[in-house]
Amino acid sequence: MRYFEFMFKLGAVKNVKSLLIITVITTCICIHVPLHAQQHTLADSALVKDAIAEAIKLSRSNKLDSAIIVAKKALEVSLQIKYLSGSSRLYTNLGIMEKQRGNYYTALALADSAIYIYTLLNNDAAKAGPYNSKGSSHFELGNYEKAISFYFEALKRYEILNRKDGILSVYNNVALCYNHLGDYNKSLEYHQKSLAMEQEQNNQQGIAASLRNIGSVYHNKKNIPKQ
Asked: Which residue has the higher pLDDT, 26 or 205?
């Protein structure tokens, strides 16, 4: 019950499809066990970590189906041994993979499962990844304002972690959302933030990309139909 109350607060269970997905996930897991009940050994957790690394490697090699199979098997083991830290990482990674396959509602449900476990673990900063993933899924669904709200949740945590790559990603994604919403000034604001960070790091490729993005927004702004 606590899990579903949490999901309603997150806004994850606003449609039947998400509810069904979350129900299936929840019936297969034991994520509301007390933290002291975790039963994994170092050897168990090492196996799960190796599987996570293998899934990420496969995903980066464009072997997404294989990556998902490995990650799901690792998740099953991680849940059986009550390795919550590993489970949260696997939910996060599986959410990203499902998003890449275009299964956005599944991705959202998986991200919410990761967020819930991070709450149990009292690890708020680690929620940056799943919040960023939720933002990306909502962007693909055309829910730009909702995407921005989740990107900002991720940004707060990336700033705490001093994750410059995460901060840059959020700046660019928020700028894209505002561009789609037609708020070109806001879009420029976040592209400028991204440009400043790229210049600070002397990343010539990133600087060039930011300048192209800024030019694109100015082009869109110039072509606004006059009333």
From this structure: 205
pLDDT higher than threshold 70 for residue 25? no
Same domain, 78 and 148: no
User: Which of the 8 DSSP states describes residue 63?
Assistant: -
For residue 212, CA distances in Å to 72, 195, 200 come to: 39, 10, 18
Cβ-defined contacts of 64-68 (< 8 Å, 24+): 64/97, 64/100, 64/101, 67/97, 68/94, 68/97, 68/98, 68/101
pLDDT at 137: 98
Name the pTM for this structure. 0.80
CATH of the domain at 159: 1.25.40.10
Q: Which residue segment(s) compose the domain that 8 sits in?
A: 1-123
Contact, 170 vs 155, CB < 8 A?
yes
Q: Provide the CATH number for the domain around residue 65.
A: 1.25.40
Domain count within the chain: 2
- The CA distance from 19 to 13, in Å, is 5
Contact 83, 35 (CB under 8 A): no
